[in-house]
Amino acid sequence: MTAIVSDSVNLTHEHTDKQGAQGPCGVFQSSAADRQRVLRKIDVAVATCLSAVYLTQYLDKTALRYATVLDLPIVGQQYNLVALSFHLGYILWVFPTQIIARRFPLPLYLGGNLIVWGIVLALLSIARSFVAFFLCRMLLGALESCVSPLLIIVVSNFYTSSEKAKRIAVFYSMDGLTQVLGGLLAYALSYTHNNKLKSYMLLFILLGIFAVLVGLIVTLYLPEAPHLWSSAAPEDKFIAMERVSLEQTSRKVDGNQREQMLEACYDIKIWLLCLMSLLGALPSSALVSFSTIFMGTYGYSDRTVLLLSGPMGLLASAMTLIVCTLSDRRQDRSRPIILAIAPSVVGWIVLLAASDGPRMLSLLGLYLAGIASSSPAIIFSWIAANVAGSTKKAFAGAAVMFSAALGSLAGTEIFEDGRSFMPGKLLCLIVLVIEMTLSLILRRLTLAAQQRKAALLTLRAAKLTQVEMAAEAAKAASSDLTDKQNPYFAYTA
What we know:
Elements: H1 2-6, E1 11-12, E2 21-22, E3 27-29, H2 32-67, H3 76-101, H4 106-123, H5 130-144, H6 147-158, H7 161-172, H8 174-189, H9 199-221, H10 234-243, H11 257-266, H12 268-297, H13 302-330, H14 335-353, H15 359-369, H16 375-386, H17 390-411, H18 422-463, H19 466-477
Antiparallel strand pairs: 1-3, 2-3
């Protein structure tokens, strides 16, 4: 099929490149060196901006955890509820924000949300009551709910199937980096002594200022799609569009939105992804909220706990990069999920078995348990590679994040029974085993869908000439069609 479709992407261009090829009638094809050069520029313009967005988001998510050891005046069940409020805001706003986002330029909407959430985060420094903390965290959840679905759209617009997982891995590896940077920042702030401006207040103010700065950068510099890449030369824009022309994923937003949304609702693969996200988010959220508390029960001091958070983040980031690189290299979007989760299963088993054992063994189990946070990167790369249609892709991303928020909300409430936390640990182990099983089912369904596509394409090839198929494929690639509507779209299991 690639050979057939590739004949259709000889696009007209007004320049002749020394390394490229210029055919008759001004038909231009870029060289491999040109495409690699433009890819590096895309990484600077797109990947750098989105990495900064994720760094900001994860710093905010971990801020509450670090604030607990910096004299945060919210403790006990009130702390659980404040942690829960973030996910409540996320759940309530994740679908409406996608509808609103379609009415604005993507960089403006994403950057605007970043700026507002930076202001709200800084305002947490003046919150004094439980209600104020609860409402501010809920508003932060609502503001941040636009990030991941919009990321899928930008990644799909600029990167090919063999590049998506690695880039998403870089974004998600910011999670581990924040655990290092956030821990070091909180550790430094723990030495500040000011009765009027406490350590946790400084933490919220500094992170809020950083979010506002990132929001301004995103608004001014993040391109939404190759044809809207204002800072690029015309030739580079063309090459950026040519690079993804074989992906059969149009950058137009003109399809039947209702039809695409209904198709997403009836797609069992998206439901499986939602369930996997829900299950995977439960233990990850629990660790985000309670890992410092766990370490405290092992006998470590508050300052030591802040430093010990770093290695857990680095392990998760390393695993994210490993499994996503493997996913791109092998063009496998399902089995790497198992690879990402397996160490965490071992970790939760260790935590269950060593609840009263040596604290170093418990710490090792905690580090291993945190590795499963790398699995969402593979799930999002699956959506980027296997879901087409502007509305369907946005809906799928929002649905997966809605499910993850539900799991995260539940994760804030599963550890309430004292030092051992045994029921919660057992629940985390069970849901991860179920998630691994679901990933195998997802693989079987995706392979079956691709086999049906290949069979239909074979029948089509018997009826049409190669030139007719090339023209049809080119038209499909430039139309806002879903993966099911486009006969030339190929699934990656």
